[in-house]
Write a structure and sequence with these properties.
This protein is an alpha+beta fold. The chain has a single domain, classed as Winged helix-like DNA-binding domain superfamily/Winged helix DNA-binding domain (Arc Repressor Mutant, subunit A). Helices cover 55% and strands 18% of the residues. It is built from six helices and seven strands. It has a four-stranded antiparallel β-sheet with strand order 1-2-3-4. The chain has a three-stranded antiparallel β-sheet with strand order 5-7-6. Strand 2 and strand 3 form a beta hairpin. Helix 2 packs antiparallel against helix 5. The chain is elongated and about 65 Å long.
């Protein structure tokens, strides 16, 4: 069987003939689902913290982590699929930056939920005080 027909699979990235998954989350799933999947790993969250300081190459992202460069590349792919970062390759160097749009949409979802939770908690407090 040719490589294209079989596809590619690793712990974090699988590409088949008709479907792709990133870290066991279908590539066709909602961007928000992929963003939260990307946030579920402490190493990826550490990379986001580093990128909050400014752009960094994949090698720079790997430096403080105890993982291989190949593993960091896979984590970068998950973060990109989640819309949280963007990367650009110039020569042999891949530079990553935070994606403002992806970070804002994830933050907005959390903010919307927080508003609902706070209203419910406020109502529960009022009901508890009147009881």
């Amino acid at each position: 069987m040719r490589e294209q027909e079989r596809g590619y699979s690793s712990n974090y990235l699988s590409v088949g003939r008709s479907t792709a998954t990133v870290g066991r989350v279908p590539a066709s799933s909602n961007v928000l689902d992929r963003a939260f999947h990307a946030l579920s790993d402490p190493g990826r969250r550490r990379m986001l913290e580093q990128l909050a300081e400014g752009p960094a190459s994949v090698s720079e992202l790997a430096r403080p982590l105890r993982m291989s460069l190949a593993a960091v590349v896979q984590h970068v792919q998950v973060l990109e699929a989640g819309g949280l970062i963007e990367s650009r390759k110039t020569g042999r160097v891949r530079t990553c930056t935070l994606s403002e749009r992806g970070m804002r949409s994830t933050e907005q979802w959390l903010t919307d939920r927080r508003t609902v939770w706070e209203r419910r908690l406020d109502l529960a407090t009022v009901l508890d005080e009147t009881a």
